[in-house]
Input
Amino acid sequence: MATLDMLKDVAPRAAEIDPEVGEMGELLEHSRQDLVEVSTGA
Output
């Protein structure tokens, strides 16, 4: 999970540098939701 936290921290700044990277935040949120569902058995 440390990697996910790191990417969530870096993604907004990356979007400022390259707007195409801004979609990374949405992808990370979907990944986070998937991880939560798997870990809770939902």
Notes: The chain has two helices and no strands. The CA atoms of residues 17 and 34 lie 28 Å apart. The chain has a mean pLDDT of 78. Residues 23-40 form the longest helix (18 residues).
